[in-house]
Write a structure and sequence with these properties.
Layout: H1 2-15, E1 30-34, E2 40-45, E3 47-50, E4 71-87, E5 90-97, E6 106-109, E7 113-120, E8 131-132, E9 151-158, E10 163-168, H2 175-181, E11 185-191, E12 208-217, H3 233-245, E13 251-254, E14 267-270, E15 274-281, E16 288-291, E17 295-299, E18 309-312, E19 321-328, E20 333-339, H4 342-348, E21 351-357
Parallel strand pairs: 3-4, 4-7, 6-11, 12-15, 14-21
Antiparallel strand pairs: 1-2, 4-5, 7-9, 8-10, 10-11, 12-13, 15-19, 16-20, 17-18, 17-19, 20-21
């Protein structure tokens, strides 16, 4: 525990801690248009809407094309420290937003205001905050959102950049990577107000959308090679930091656990449907690939302002970022969506299944001859 106290103390000294003197966020009553001199020439009340967040891989109900003007979108994230089974015999003391790994996807439109309430229940053991890569200023909101157990706060920011962006906990020092690899990360999608466009500038629509959050875990083992278990996040800190320093994850998984999106937990689609896949990795580079399909449109860097790449076999999601891919399914069957570091996909868990229903098209693929004994001339 002495080591833990030193780490936390250093974090607070380097990055500061929550105080009653933090900047207060005032309610936004109007949208203001100003002249160059700064005088208000028009004021229009903004509509407030509450977004009901859902656990990944699903996204909250949303419009693909914005209706009306900018809105204040109210969301609520609760920091939850909990025990989670991540597979292959390992259980961890996880740090989460709203109890899931990854945290829920938030969806707004460019020009909307996100009004986020961050809650740290009194049962928690650690300070938490949120750094939103979609936000501008104050370390993505990290400087303004530090809440100790028993506190909550409200942050409002304007979504000025269209794309998909990571958010994560970043309270300072070693606590930043510790909380991230304990599961405290998610994604926000800022759609263009007119919706997504293809490489020629034509509007595109998706029938379904899934959020896949890739997560690396670093679970300590005992002298017999058995995964250790801990009662709280602080209890696991010292041993976990030592494993993290080796940069070799014990697990690389989709949506919090080995098998979270495979077999009985598979995703679904139908032939002819266009599906949007959002993929985030808050810590390490990854290489998504859809076996049996392609990235019809890929926003590899996550920016919807940029022209999407087309017909990719594999694409790169840089550590600390999110990307998006659109694909129209053409054949039925079970597809495998994975990290094409095949060691991490097959041996560590970074894979998902999509079960697609529909009619088979022999023109696209057919088995001309079934397996048989080799015939020699």
């Amino acid at each position: 525990m002495k080591f833990i106290n030193i780490v936390i103390a250093i974090s607070f000294l380097l990055y500061g801690c929550n105080s009653s003197g933090q900047k207060q966020i005032q309610p936004l009553a109007v949208s203001e248009k100003a002249t160059q001199s700064g005088s208000v020439i028009d004021s229009t009340p903004l509509e407030r809407v509450k977004q009901h967040l859902v656990a990944p891989p699903l996204l909250p109900i949303h419009d693909q094309v914005a209706r009306g003007g900018s809105k204040i979108v109210q969301v609520r994230l609760v920091a939850r420290e909990k025990t989670m089974d991540i597979g292959n015999g390992a259980k961890i003391q996880a740090a989460t937003y709203n109890g899931s790994i990854p945290g829920p996807a938030i969806v707004v439109h460019e020009g909307d205001y996100v009004e986020l309430t961050l809650v740290n229940p009194p049962v928690n053991t650690m300070q938490h905050n949120i750094d939103l890569h979609a936000a501008t200023g104050a370390l993505g909101g990290g400087e303004l959102t530090k809440v100790s157990p028993g506190q909550q706060m409200v942050l409002r920011f304007k979504a000025t950049k269209p794309g998909v962006f990571v958010y994560h906990c970043a309270t300072g020092g070693p606590m930043i990577p510790y909380h991230v690899v304990s599961g405290m990360n998610g994604v926000i999608m800022v759609l263009p107000r007119e919706g997504l466009k293809d490489a020629q500038g034509h509007s595109v629509h998706y029938d379904r959308a899934y959020y896949i959050g890739e997560q690396d875990f670093y679970v300590p083992k005992d002298e017999n090679g058995v995964y250790r278990r801990y009662d709280t996040l602080p209890d696991a800190l010292e041993d976990t930091l030592q494993v993290m320093q080796g940069l070799v994850p014990s697990h690389v998984v989709f949506n919090g656990a080995v098998g979270a999106l495979t077999k009985a937990n598979h995703l679904t689609a139908n032939v002819g449907e266009t599906v949007l896949f959002i993929h985030s990795q808050a810590n390490r580079d990854t290489r998504p690939h859809l076996i049996g399909g392609h990235g019809d449109l890929v926003w590899e860097t996550g920016s919807f302002s940029d022209q999407p790449a087309t017909n990719l076999e594999t694409w790169l999601i840089r550590g600390g970022s999110a990307g998006a891919m659109l694909y129209q399914f053409k054949q039925p069957g079970t597809y495998v969506y994975l990290n094409h570091n095949l060691i991490e996909a097959v041996m560590l868990g970074a894979a998902a299944h999509i079960k697609v229903d529909g009619k088979w098209d022999n023109d696209l693929m057919t088995q001309v001859v079934k397996p048989e004994l080799i015939k020699y001339d």
